[in-house]
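Human:
Class, as today's exercise, you are to examine the entry below, and be ready to discuss the fold:
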Amino acid sequence: MPSLRRSGLLGLVLLASLPRTNLCAGEPFPTLDRSLDILVQQADSGDAEAQFLLALYLQHSKPMLEGGEVDYAKAIDLYNRAIAQGHAGASFALGRLYDKGLGVKEDLQKAIELYSVAAKAGHAEAMGWLAASYFAIRDDTFAFIWANKAAEAGDAGGTNVLGVLHHKGYGTEKDYTKAMELFHRAAEAGECHALMNVGGLYYNGDGVPQDGLEAERWFQKAKNCQSEDAAFISEYTDKFLGRIRDGQMPEPLREARPGSTEGLIGAAVIAAIAAAAAAAATGDGPSGVSGHDPPDGEWKAEFWCYTDFSDSHPVNKPTYCKNRSGGVWDRSGLFDPCAGVDGWCDGFGLGPKLGFNQ
């Protein structure tokens, strides 16, 4: 879920801020080696904060300062020791490792467990990642609950997730005005994906007058934003910047279809959907059952997914398609005729990377 995610922990542990160095007044500031010695001593003595800081140092700072591979085994041991003493930051940090599959096998459920511990202890960033994780598994109720908590706690990433939920109408009513407000708030706090999302709303004309120049300005801001997802953001915004500069703006979709996610839609795509509807109008109508494949007789054109008909090299993308009765269908990992990145397709088309608001 790329446009939901944000940069995580700070990459450098500032040893100058180490607690309880027991320095006498007037003693010179300790060297890096001396500071590390103090940190190791405190960690070995059972200090949870020192264990957490030392783990961060091993994971982030040491490779930057000395080169070499991250000692994940040692860092994970330190995180676990701090977690055993109730350290919320350590729970969050270890959750990030499980989320990204660093030093451990990738395990989103384990990450959710660890994020939950930290979030319930008041860790704002953990709240935001917990919301994003629930969104990833399509538990929209808990995604909305924790995104709200994260936004109230001032976490920019969680604020962005809340904007996505309002834009999509997941776990709450669809509200473009509220979504734009939240994206702006997150963008002002430096959330790179929120910058891209603001541009997306201007590009689509979702709740605001469609404005190519304003969309271009926000997409460019997103491209220049420093993020662990910088490569994805650059690739994605380049596509839309190219379309804007070529005058290929979409026709804004003014009325939402029941059960659909709003997106880019043009006359040619509408015609394609109408043709698909005529060809697929068999059976008694759409069901509200969820699964992997629609049942026999399902009205295929009642499913709405996001795909690019003009993409000459379509690539499978994880997606969920919805029908008008609320059935949700996981079409991930399947190759379909209209698989791609953006645009509308019938129920056999793959859709977007969840979270980018188009």
User: Anything to note?
Assistant: Confidence is low (pLDDT under 50) at residues 6-29, 254-358. The chain has 13 helices and four strands.
